[in-house]
Amino acid sequence: MKQPTALYSFEPSPETLKKMKDFYRPFQSDNDNPYIDLFAKNDAVAVTIYKQNKKGKIKVVFQGPDAIKEAKIWDLTARDQNLPKKEKAEIKNIYPQIGSDEVGTGDFFGPVCVCATYIQKKDLPLLEELGVTDSKKMSDEHILAIGPILLSKIEYSQLSLPNEKYNEVKDDFNMNVIKAKMHNRCLLNLHMKHPKATLYQDQFAEPGQYFSYLKNEAKVVTKINFHTKGESLFPSVAAGSVIARYSFLKKMQAMNERYGMEFPFGAGEKVDAFIEQFIERYGKEELRKVAKLNWANYKRLK
């Protein structure tokens, strides 16, 4: 009887990635896929290590009857992602609540911004009046208009990581580690003031992996409700996403004014073309202050 095929994928830390490559290199098979860095397989499991994508992420996929057993060598939280998903329990908002979200992690230019907000039931009419929802569903013009009101009416904790600082730490921490540390600090700042509030976070990693990113932190907020698309489910996460986006937009505006150029969002072809223009005007060293230099956009420079 044929064994069922299991599947698991995750984004390893730089340290784990190096160990994995060293471990599987003697067993690797030939492959002509330009997106694959290393491929190794036997009768029970195939391991695929993909190259870094445009967002600076590296994914490893385990597939086969022994996929989960093999994956647990590297990630103890590994589980079969091929299993049918259980029906989700009804999502309930509990107040007061603290929720966090981030922006800027998909942009070559501009900082990484994280924000947590403290929301009580009495704040809901204001959020509804302002049209606060997932910031990705709101126009930047709308966010810039309501941002100052939110900052004056809602209790929040917001952190921004400038790219000059990002480039100093990028070799020690991948993007998920950076995000986890920033989320933890924002949540902690509000949790210390409101310890009875329920905590929510827009999930970007499995809980076990998330907390492994924080193993060296002195204080870690632990009782968090993780949900994907949390900004569409919880007012505190939605408000956090809007304030984070507002901060990101204001900092991009400041960059535009400082350099007399309009920096593009994202990491597409427009960004590649803009890099050449920026370097021609200000030089390659100045790019370190405004861009994430470990991204493919920078590596494509001739």
Order of helices and strands: EHEEEHEEHHEHHEHEHHHH
What is the CATH domain class of the largest domain?
Alpha Beta
Rg (CA only): 21 Å
The name CATH uses for the topology of the largest domain is: Nucleotidyltransferase, domain 5
In terms of structural class, how would the helical and strand content be classed? alpha+beta
The CATH architecture designation of the largest domain is 2-Layer Sandwich
From the N-terminal CA to the C-terminal CA, the straight-line distance is 54 Å
Low-confidence stretches: none
Amount of beta strand? 15-25%
Name its key features:
4-stranded antiparallel sheet; 2 domains; 5-stranded mixed sheet; 302 residues; TATA-Binding Protein; globular; Nucleotidyltransferase, domain 5; 9 strands; single chain; alpha+beta
